[in-house]
Amino acid sequence: MKLGLIAGNGRFPFLLLDAARAQGLAVAVAAIREETDAEMDRRAAADPLISVHWLSLGELSRLIEVFHKEGVTKAVMAGQVKHKQIFSSIRPDWRLAKLLLNLRTRNTDMLLGAVAKVLGDEGIELISSTAFLEPLLATEGVLTVRGPDEDERKNIEYGLGVARAVSGFDIGQTVVVAAQACVAVEAMEGTDATIERAGALMRTLRESGKEGGESSTLARKLTIIKVAKPNQDMRFDVPVIGIRTVETMVGAGASCLSIEAGRTLLFDREALLERADAAGIAIVGSAREY
Fold first, then answer.
1. Which tens digits make up the pLDDT trace of 186-207?
2. pTM value?
3. What is the separation, in whole angstroms, between the first and last Cα of the chain?
């Protein structure tokens, strides 16, 4: 079987590529010009069973043509496509333009679900993005040396309720909490930018306290809560945590991260947890809600 790989940004496409090749599969990569790392070409040059085809976000017809030419009947999406790209850089071809016009709402699930249906109608089945990476899914319980303290556990309990409600509307999957109050909610900017925004807000509160005013009741470390959507389609937009997220937490002054067990991928797990331990950050896999 030749696997089709629709590659977004980050390390996810490369991890999936390695896993597929380890199973002996040839891989036809549809690399998105606006997102995919140029390293993909170097990987293909070193392996005759990897082919790379570069296309822009809006070229749905060309994607189908490429996969048909390569004999692809099963494909996977791996790697983020920034939500704002869909509204800024995209120049839809006739097929994608028609699809967009027929959408009730233009959120991630609706758009990618419609793309998956078009691919399916063309004989290309979109399979789970975790199909080759099950060992990278977060397990339940404390993952770091330090577990959440009492305040952080309260933040997690409160934040899980908020995050699950927000994710149900396909707005974002991350919320930032301090002292059981919501500091930031993810929207189109993505997880890391949300954490940075929360850190900047907390710094302004601390600085205003130093200027002679009373110290804010929110002047405490931040807890990050990231969840999957209630009906998460594991074919796309699966929650992912990497070492960059931990570095962003360090910069923002965040002390705890809750992720959803069984539905969140941990990239560079050993290095990620070592960095979190060095920074005194607690990471916990929270039980998923059915």
1. 988 889 999 999 999 998 877 7
2. 0.82
3. 34
